[in-house]
C-alpha cells in the first residue's frame, strides 16, 4: 500500500466518522442551546433539565437515523473489503 492510498483510506474513515457523529451531536447541541436560553430566562438551574432532553433527543436520532448510519458504515466497510485484496495481492 502506497502512502497516498493509506492517506486516502484514513481520510475516508475520518470523513465517515465526522459525518455520522454530526447527525447525532448537532441536534443535541441545538437543543442544549435552547434549554440554556430557557434556563437563563427563567433562572432555573436544574441539571436534569439540560441532560434529560439532550439524552432523549440523541436516542431519537439513533432511532430515526439508525438505518442511514448503518448503511453508511456498511458502505465504508464494503469499500475497505474491496481495497484489502489489492494491498496484499
Report on the structure:
The structure is a single chain. With 89 residues, this protein is mostly helical. The protein has one domain (3-83). The protein contains 2 helices and no strands. Helix 1 packs antiparallel against helix 2. The N and C termini lie close together (10 Å). The model has no long low-confidence stretch (mean pLDDT 89).
Essential attributes:
mainly alpha
Basic shape: elongated
Q: Helix tally?
A: 2
The portion of residues forming beta strands comes to: under 5%
Fraction of helical residues: over 70%
* SSE string, helices as H and strands as E: HH
Largest sheet: none
Distance linking N and C termini = 10 Å
Beta strands, count: 0
Domain module count: 1
- Based on helices, strands and strand pairing, what is the structural class? mainly alpha
Q: Work out the oligomeric state of the chains in this entry.
A: single chain
Membrane topology: Multi-pass membrane protein
Pfam families: Bac_export_3
Subcellular location: Cell membrane
Protein name: Flagellar biosynthetic protein FliQ
Amino acid at each position: 500500500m502506497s502512502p497516498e492510498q493509506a492517506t486516502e483510506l484514513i481520510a475516508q474513515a475520518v470523513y465517515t466518522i465526522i459525518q455520522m457523529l454530526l447527525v447525532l451531536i448537532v441536534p443535541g447541541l441545538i437543543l442544549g442551546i435552547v434549554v440554556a436560553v430557557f434556563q437563563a430566562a427563567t433562572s432555573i438551574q436544574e441539571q436534569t433539565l439540560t441532560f434529560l432532553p439532550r439524552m432523549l433527543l440523541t436516542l431519537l436520532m439513533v432511532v430515526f437515523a439508525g438505518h442511514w448510519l448503518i448503511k453508511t458504515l456498511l458502505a465504508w466497510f464494503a469499500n475497505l473489503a474491496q481495497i484489502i485484496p489489492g494491498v496484499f495481492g
